[in-house]
Amino acid sequence: MEKSSYFYQFLEPMSKELALVARELENSIFTSPRTMLTHARIFVETILKQVIQEEKLLDAHWSNIKDRIDLLNVNGYIKPEIRDALHHVRLIGNLAAHDTRTFRFSEALLSWESIYKIVKWYIEVYGPLDFMVPSYQDPSPLVKQSFDILEIQERLKSLEKLLTTSTEKGEDNQGEGDSGKSPEGISPKPEQPGFTPIRTLVYKGKKIEVPYFLRDAFLLPQRFAISETFLIRLGAEQQARIISELPNNLEGLHKHIKRYNEKNDETFFQELTVFIEEEKIRRQLSLERPGELFYFYKADYIVVTEELSQISLNADEFTGIPSLLRQLNEDQIDTVGQLPKELVILAKYSNVGIGTVQKLFDQLKEKQRGSLVPEHILSHM
After folding, report:
1. Number of domains forming the structure of the chain
2. 306 is a domain residue
3. Do residues 224 and 245 both lie within one domain?
4. Do 131 and 53 sit in the same domain of this protein?
5. Mean pLDDT score, 176-190
6. Does residue 2 fall inside a structural domain?
7. How many whole angstroms separate alpha carbon 1 and alpha carbon 5?
8. Are residues 106 and 22 in the same domain?
9. How does residue 99 score in pLDDT terms, banded at 50, 70 and 90?
10. Nearest 10 degrees: CA dihedral of 10, 14, 17, 20?
11. pLDDT digits (tens, 9 = 90+) for 72-96
12. Residues 6+ apart with CB under 8 A from 211
C-alpha cells in the first residue's frame, strides 16, 4: 500500500480544510515546535466549534477554547480522556504563544498524539459511519526539505482563515460545497517547501504570484533581455534590485528614472512573469535532485558532472569565444567547474554579448552529451 503524502490525508473526504491545516502542523513539528503547538490549539478549537454547531448548543457566551471545552464537558458530550487531551493541547498551546522559552520536539509530539485522540473521537462520533480512522503514526523527522518557519506561518494563516469562513457557514455546509475548495495560494496537494505564494504583483489587471523562495531574490538584469538597461537604471536609484523592493502594483515604475515610459513597465512585467516561472522550474529541479550542480541558461540547464567540471576553459576545448575565454582566465576561472551557476552573468564581460554566452552553453551541452557513458558499460564499472 502506498504511504499517504501526509498522515491526515484520510481526513480530506470529511473536511479538506482540517486535513490541510493538519498537514501544516505536521510540517512544523520538527521545524518549529512553537508554531505547531500554537496552531494546534486553533485546530482543535475549530473542531469544538463544529461539534457545538452539530449539537445545536448556544455558542454566543463561550468566547475561548476553555469555555468551549467546559460547555461540552458539563453537558456530557466528551469523555474524560478527550477532555484531558483538549486541555493538554490548549495549555501547551497557550504556553507556546506567550512563553519565550525553547519548546522541545517531544512537546510537539505529545500535542500531536492528543490531536489524534481528538480527531479520532470527532470522526467516530460525528463522521460517516463507514469512515475508518487509521492507527496513530508518528511524523518522520527525516525530511529532505523543510518549510521555513515564516512560510509555514503564512500557510497556516491562509488555511485558518478558510477554516473560520467554513465554520461560520454552519453545519449545513460542513463536508460539502465549499469544503472542496482550497485557500488562495495553497494547493490541496502537498507542495515542496518554498512554493507558497507570498505576494501578488499586478499590472493593469494582470497578476503574478511570487513564491516564498523568491521573496528576496536578486533581479539580475542580464536575466531580462529587453529590460536589462531599465533594471540597471532602476538599481542605480535603489529601486527594483530585489523582488521585495518592487511595489505590488508595477504601473508607474518607470517614473523613478528619466526617459522611460509605460511600455517599459509592461515589458518588465512580461519578462518578470517568465523569470518567476523559470525560477520555479529551477527550484523544483534542485529539490528533486539534491546534491547535484546545475548550470542554468535562460530556461535551459545542464548537469555538471565531475568530468565536465574538470575541462579547461581554453581555445582547444571551446571555439569561437576567444574574448570570453581570455577574460575568464584573467579572473582565474580556468575550468568549467569554476563557472557561475547562472551563465548569463558572463555577459558582463567586455565585448561579450548574450550570443557568446549561448555559444559557450551549447558547447558545454555537447561536451556533456559526449561524456555520457552507456548504461551497459556503467553496470560493469
Report:
1. 3
2. yes
3. yes
4. yes
5. 52
6. no
7. 12
8. yes
9. confident
10. 0
11. 999 999 999 999 999 999 999 988 8
12. 194, 195, 196, 197, 198, 276, 279, 280, 283
Torsion angle in degrees (nearest 10) through CA of 63, 64, 69, 71 = -10
Report the percentage of the chain scoring pLDDT > 90.
61
| Structure confidence by residue, pLDDT tens digits, 113-125 | 999 999 999 999 9
Which of 97-101, 117-121, 264-268 shows the lowest per-residue confidence on average (mean pLDDT)? Answer: 97-101
Residue 335 to residue 338: CA distance in whole angstroms:
6
What pLDDT is attached to residue 188?
Answer: 57
User: Could you tell me the pLDDT band of residue 161, with boundaries at 50, 70 and 90?
Assistant: confident
End-to-end Cα separation, the chain, in angstroms: 35
Confidence of residue 271 (pLDDT cuts 50, 70, 90): very high
Q: Do both 248 and 329 map to the same domain?
A: no
Identify the burial level of 38 via C-beta atoms within 10 angstroms of its C-beta, where 0-12 means exposed, 13-18 middle and 19 or more buried: buried
The three cell numbers of residue 60 are: 454566543
Q: Are residues 273 and 204 in the same domain?
A: yes
Q: What are the residues facing 302 on neighbouring strands?
A: 295
Q: Tell me: the pLDDT tens digits for 20-70? A: 999 999 988 988 888 899 899 999 999 999 999 899 887 666 678 999 999
Do 51 and 126 have their domain in common? yes
The residue among 180, 211, 237 that closes a domain is 180
Q: Which domain holds residue 221?
A: 197-291
Give the mean pLDDT of 344-369.
Answer: 93
Report the candidate in 134, 148, 144, 37 with the shortest Cα–Cα distance to residue 95.
37
Counted residue by residue, the chain has a size of 381
Q: Is the pLDDT of residue 291 over 80?
A: no
